């Protein structure tokens, strides 16, 4: 956080300004400067000048409300975070505030210097994280410019050759197609990254703001509920970051097939045990192995990533109480892996795009995910010289089958 934090309070009640100023003056160890604007129009003009680090916005602003102001400011490109001030704790208002761009909300008359300082600090950190995403977007745009330059050079070279007009046109079309694909990839990445990061971060902010209010033993259950929400949100963030990192390493050619020899059954049972903590209520994994032996020579880490991803999907896209059937079979030097769930299945119209990066089937809108998992699994399988097939029926489940031939000589 900066040493001197400039804060603008937007509130049509001068008494609220005085109260907020007094609370802010009691924040220890921080240097805050607070300005006040009492009208919608004046506040919007001050926001456009980009002089403040944080904005505290009252829900009621005469003929307008704070959500309108935040919506308008965000549409005009405001980067500093907004914190909504409301008259009462209201989950619906909280969710509406997060949806239009607020980083947090505080209930007027209930927050103290500690609450205010924490909310400002969390909001600034959240805004910084979103800034990093926009920075990454700029870097991707630079890559687009570089690719455009490569395209121009390719055209120049084509003009200097003795190729036929038809061959030249084909090369240009290929380059243009790659350009379009990169633009689409950039757009999908920024859209999905912004949404997927914002959702768990908002959960962390909301739960962190509420957990400190539960201080007695009678509140243990409520406090633990919000702690669990924070842990789950952080786990989601880790998964998202790992997916993006895996895609980046694959695209850069930094994933290698490094086989080692080990016993398959204990290795798989460790993975199944690791998955138990992520299963929904009543779910279980039924693991079975067939074959005369269980010694394989294969890349251990890539295989673990593949299995964790498929088992996680089997749980995620199934309801409580369902079983994921997981089998491994060794016949001579061929390893066959099958993961069968009893979940929502994949619509026929979506199956052709199942392994496309960032693609998500139309029936998973309420289930979190980046649309990268199956693409990563398929590419890992290909790197390991394996093959992958699937069979799915809507509302009955999906079965993935992976085959690794010649694993004894991998």
TrEMBL record:
<feature type="modified residue" description="4-aspartylphosphate">
    <location>
        <position position="58"/>
    </location>
</feature>
<feature type="domain" description="Response regulatory">
    <location>
        <begin position="6"/>
        <end position="123"/>
    </location>
</feature>
<keyword id="KW-0418">Kinase</keyword>
<dbReference type="GO" id="GO:0000155">
    <property type="term" value="F:phosphorelay sensor kinase activity"/>
</dbReference>
<dbReference type="InterPro" id="IPR003661">
    <property type="entry name" value="HisK_dim/P_dom"/>
</dbReference>
<dbReference type="InterPro" id="IPR001789">
    <property type="entry name" value="Sig_transdc_resp-reg_receiver"/>
</dbReference>
<keyword id="KW-0902">Two-component regulatory system</keyword>
<dbReference type="InterPro" id="IPR036097">
    <property type="entry name" value="HisK_dim/P_sf"/>
</dbReference>
<keyword id="KW-0175">Coiled coil</keyword>
<dbReference type="Pfam" id="PF02518">
    <property type="entry name" value="HATPase_c"/>
</dbReference>
<feature type="coiled-coil region">
    <location>
        <begin position="137"/>
        <end position="188"/>
    </location>
</feature>
<keyword id="KW-0808">Transferase</keyword>
<keyword id="KW-0597">Phosphoprotein</keyword>
<protein>
    <recommendedName>
        <fullName>histidine kinase</fullName>
        <ecNumber>2.7.13.3</ecNumber>
    </recommendedName>
</protein>
<dbReference type="InterPro" id="IPR003594">
    <property type="entry name" value="HATPase_dom"/>
</dbReference>
<dbReference type="InterPro" id="IPR011006">
    <property type="entry name" value="CheY-like_superfamily"/>
</dbReference>
<dbReference type="Pfam" id="PF00072">
    <property type="entry name" value="Response_reg"/>
</dbReference>
<dbReference type="InterPro" id="IPR050736">
    <property type="entry name" value="Sensor_HK_Regulatory"/>
</dbReference>
<dbReference type="InterPro" id="IPR005467">
    <property type="entry name" value="His_kinase_dom"/>
</dbReference>
<feature type="domain" description="Histidine kinase">
    <location>
        <begin position="192"/>
        <end position="408"/>
    </location>
</feature>
<dbReference type="InterPro" id="IPR036890">
    <property type="entry name" value="HATPase_C_sf"/>
</dbReference>
<dbReference type="Pfam" id="PF00512">
    <property type="entry name" value="HisKA"/>
</dbReference>
<dbReference type="InterPro" id="IPR004358">
    <property type="entry name" value="Sig_transdc_His_kin-like_C"/>
</dbReference>
């Amino acid at each position: 956080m900066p040493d001197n934090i400039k804060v603008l309070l937007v509130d049509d009640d001068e008494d609220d300004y005085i109260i907020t100023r007094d609370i802010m003056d009691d924040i220890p160890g921080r240097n805050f400067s607070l300005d006040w604007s009492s009208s919608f129009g004046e506040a919007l003009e001050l926001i456009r000048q980009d002089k403040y680090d944080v904005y505290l916005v009252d829900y009621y602003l005469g003929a307008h409300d704070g959500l309108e102001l935040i919506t308008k400011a965000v549409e005009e490109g405001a980067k500093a975070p907004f914190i909504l001030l409301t008259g009462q704790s209201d989950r619906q208002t909280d969710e509406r505030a997060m949806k239009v761009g607020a980083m947090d909300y505080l209930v007027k008359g209930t927050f103290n210097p500690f609450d205010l300082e924490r909310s400002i600090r969390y909001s600034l950190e959240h805004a910084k994280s979103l800034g990093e995403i926009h920075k990454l977007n700029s870097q991707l745009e630079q890559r687009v410019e570089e690719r455009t330059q490569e395209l121009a050079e390719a055209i120049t070279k084509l003009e200097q050759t003795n190729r036929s007009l038809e061959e030249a046109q084909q090369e240009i079309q290929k380059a243009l197609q790659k350009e379009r694909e990169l633009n689409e990839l950039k757009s999908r990445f920024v859209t999905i990254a912004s949404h997927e990061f914002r959702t768990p971060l908002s959960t962390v902010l909301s739960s962190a703001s509420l957990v400190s209010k539960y201080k007695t033993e009678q509140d243990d259950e409520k406090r633990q509920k919000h702690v669990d929400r924070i842990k789950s949100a952080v786990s989601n963030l880790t998964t998202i970051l790992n997916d993006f990192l895996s895609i980046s390493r694959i695209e850069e050619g930094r994933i290698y097939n490094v086989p080692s020899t080990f016993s398959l059954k204990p290795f798989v049972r460790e993975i199944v045990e690791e998955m138990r903590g992520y299963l929904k209520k009543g779910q279980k994994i039924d693991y079975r192995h067939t074959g005369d032996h269980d010694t394989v020579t294969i890349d251990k880490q890539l295989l673990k990533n593949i299995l964790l991803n498929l088992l996680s999907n089997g749980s995620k896209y199934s309801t409580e109480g369902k079983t994921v059937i997981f089998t491994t079979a060794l016949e001579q030097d061929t390893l066959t892996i099958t993961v069968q769930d009893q979940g929502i299945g994949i619509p026929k119209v979506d199956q052709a795009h199942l392994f496309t990066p960032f693609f998500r089937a139309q029936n998973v809108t309420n289930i979190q995910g980046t649309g990268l998992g199956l693409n990563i699994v398929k590419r890992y399988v290909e790197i390991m010289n394996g093959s992958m097939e699937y069979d799915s029926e809507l509302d009955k489940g999906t079965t993935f089958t992976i085959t690794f031939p010649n694993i004894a000589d991998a």
